[in-house]
Amino acid sequence: EQNVNNIKPEYIKLFQFDKKLLPFTWTVIRIDGSHFHRFSEVHGFEKPNDEQALKLMNSCAVSVLEEFNDIVFAYGVSDEYSFVLKGSSQLYQRRASEIVSAICLFFTATYVMKWKEFLPQKELKCLPNFDGRAVCYPTYEIIRDYLAWRQVDCHINNQYNTCFWMLVKSGKTTREAQSKLKGTQTQEKNQILSELFGIDYSMLPIMFRNGSCVFWDKEMTVTDNGVVAKFLKKVVVDHSNIIEDDFWEAHPLILEE
Ligand code: ATP
Ligand code: ATP
Ligand code: MG
Ligand code: MG
Ligand code: MG
Ligand code: MG
């Protein structure tokens, strides 16, 4: 017969395995909507880009930055968001599962709460789900490469999807559209858009082409005794190119620690 009074907490805790993030290392928590292909159909999202749905994602990301102080930058596209946690963060003593679940669920709850604000004419018919993972990126170059990789992915997908949906909307079957685009390079896709549909890809909304960046608008100030002080103002959303150096040179404080 088991006596609960004899169960020692140290013994039960032996079975607990805490995966901790590497110390002093930038960590990306990337969340991605589960089955959003279907979720977007059920809710009649405009294809290929529903602007209001993207703005809802961005607004949720702003809330995440306001809630979790150690998140210094976020990049979002489609149904995904990458949140960059600064290397010195001690959030949940760097226990990965707590960090991922807290951010994922905060984002999901905010998405549900703000749905009406961004898509007032649409009923939320099923619950959105986001999965999440944490990956550590040990150097400045590698975290920059990670972010560039996501933005390159945004470019490639958006260009493909823009062509695909123009072909479908003009009467092609999805199969015909797929086979027309199979193996085409960037130039050929731009050609299809301009020749068949009179669309200049570079004139499409920048949020669709570049995705969205979310960060604290910081300011550097030199005080009387020469100390550089930082003032956090507010969280901003923009659609900068984060592949080139310009953005990072203009915002040197974002990835400083
Ligand atoms: P998984 O569960 O594996 O992530 P998924 O169906 O969510 O599957 P993704 O690769 O994550 O697939 O792609 C997300 C899909 O959601 C896109 O292909 C697109 O169809 C849809 N989607 C997401 N956001 C929007 C949006 N703002 N406007 C239109 N469609 C969107
Ligand atoms: P942490 O973020 O570390 O989990 P916490 O404040 O959530 O901090 P817990 O140790 O998880 O602390 O304890 C949950 C607390 O929530 C309880 O101490 C209690 O005060 C409160 N609480 C939870 N459920 C109820 C409930 N049904 N009725 C009243 N109080 C509750
Ligand atoms: Mg997924
Ligand atoms: Mg998805
Ligand atoms: Mg996705
Ligand atoms: Mg707890």
From TrEMBL:
<comment type="similarity">
    <text>Belongs to the tRNA(His) guanylyltransferase family.</text>
</comment>
<feature type="domain" description="tRNAHis guanylyltransferase catalytic">
    <location>
        <begin position="10"/>
        <end position="138"/>
    </location>
</feature>
<comment type="function">
    <text>Adds a GMP to the 5'-end of tRNA(His) after transcription and RNase P cleavage.</text>
</comment>
<feature type="domain" description="Thg1 C-terminal">
    <location>
        <begin position="142"/>
        <end position="223"/>
    </location>
</feature>
<protein>
    <recommendedName>
        <fullName>tRNA(His) guanylyltransferase</fullName>
    </recommendedName>
</protein>
